[in-house]
């Protein structure tokens, strides 16, 4: 079976497990369409906090939450409502190039309470032996001519590492970034690779399509992106970790967030228009 579903006591699907021929697997909660596990070549590749709340009462701490329609703080709740909304399983396919599942979110009471727009978000997860392919499409389904909307969006990927001291993020040198810790704009990255040894929270603008990440001394991933302009690099480090109820005090040592998104300047969609972004994570 390429796909199995986990249901609650009322028979509603809460989680989908997608398995590909090689044994690679992803687990996806319908809450947020959040991927909480990606196993490939026999190992877990994503960080999920031991303290993550998985009952749908809070955004899931780890895996790959979807940020939409607002990155960070703003008029809406932090990172928007997509990660705290119940998505639907649209369908799945077992095909030659991998197992695939599609998830759907449209406007609902939760979204309309903070954002007065009709939209159709489709998230497609395709899995093959060494790659996780993620596509997000957003359609503006407002009907009135005045119904354009702006949004920012991002796939907030938490990579699992045996030690943050071994993480190195390549291909960022020369880029201009916003340093959200120092509250500085237009900082130019001088390091190649970038390593992390304190609280890091940066938006690298107009990043290249391919980013190589050393996850440990012996393992690397290639992160590619199309139509996602920016890269966010985040690790809360020790002090912020202590203040997070759904994150262990020492767990910052086991994770790094390298996030693909368009967050520096918003995407505008007129009624009827669709935007689509893709990310793939390939084990090297
Ligand atoms: O705690 P959360 O709302 O999940 O946000 C976690 C982090 O997400 C991004 O990486 C932001 O750049 C950070 O500023 C934020 O702290």
Automatic annotation (TrEMBL):
- The reaction(s) this protein catalyses: alpha-D-glucose 6-phosphate = beta-D-glucose 6-phosphate
* A GO CC term attached to the entry: cytoplasm
SUPFAM superfamilies according to UniProt: Galactose mutarotase-like
Q: Provide the E.C. number(s) assigned to this enzyme.
A: 5.1.3.15
Question: InterPro entries attached here?
Answer: Aldose_1/G6P_1-epimerase, G6P_1-epimerase, Gal_mutarotase_sf_dom, GH-type_carb-bd
The yes or no answer to whether the keyword Isomerase is present is yes
Alphabetized, the UniProt keywords read: Isomerase
Q: Which domain of life is it from?
A: Eukaryota
Q: Which residues bind substrate?
A: 61, 78, 83
GO biological-process terms attached to the record = carbohydrate metabolic process
One GO term in the molecular function aspect is:
carbohydrate binding
Which residue positions are annotated as catalytic?
156, 259
Q: Which family does it belong to?
A: Belongs to the glucose-6-phosphate 1-epimerase family.
PANTHER family, sorted: APOSPORY-ASSOCIATED PROTEIN C-RELATED, GLUCOSE-6-PHOSPHATE 1-EPIMERASE
**What this chain does, per the record?**
Catalyzes the interconversion between the alpha and beta anomers from at least three hexose 6-phosphate sugars (Glc6P, Gal6P, and Man6P).
Its recorded name reads Glucose-6-phosphate 1-epimerase
């Amino acid at each position: 079976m390429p796909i199995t579903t986990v249901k609650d006591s009322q028979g509603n699907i809460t989680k989908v497990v997608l398995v590909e021929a090689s044994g690679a697997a992803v687990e996806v909660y319908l809450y947020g369409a959040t991927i909480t596990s990606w196993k490939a070549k026999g190992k877990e590749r994503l960080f999920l906090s031991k303290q993550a709340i998985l009952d749908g009462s809070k955004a899931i701490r780890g895996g790959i939450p979807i940020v939409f329609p607002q990155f960070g703080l703003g008029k809406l709740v932090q990172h928007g409502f997509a990660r705290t909304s119940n998505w639907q399983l649209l369908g799945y396919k077992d095909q030659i190039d991998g197992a695939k599942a599609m998830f759907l979110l449209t406007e609902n009471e939760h979204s309309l309470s903070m954002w007065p727009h009709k939209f159709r978000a489709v998230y497609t997860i395709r899995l093959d032996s060494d790659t996780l392919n993620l596509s997000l499409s957003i359609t503006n389904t407002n009907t009135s001519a005045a119904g354009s909307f702006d949004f920012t969006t991002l796939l907030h990927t938490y990579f699992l590492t045996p030690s943050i001291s071994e993480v190195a993020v390549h291909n960022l040198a020369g880029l201009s970034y916003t340093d959200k810790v120092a509250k500085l704009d237009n900082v130019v990255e001088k390091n190649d690779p970038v390593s992390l040894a304190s609280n890091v929270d940066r938006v690298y603008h107009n990043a290249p399509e391919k980013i190589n990440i050393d996850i440990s001394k012996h393992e690397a991933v290639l992160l590619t992106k199309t139509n996602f302009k920016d890269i966010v690099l985040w690790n809360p480090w020790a002090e912020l970790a202590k203040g997070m109820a759904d994150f262990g005090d020492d767990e910052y040592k086991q994770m790094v967030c390298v996030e693909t998104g368009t967050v520096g300047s918003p995407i505008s969609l007129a009624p009827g228009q669709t935007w689509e972004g893709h990310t793939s994570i390939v084990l090297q």
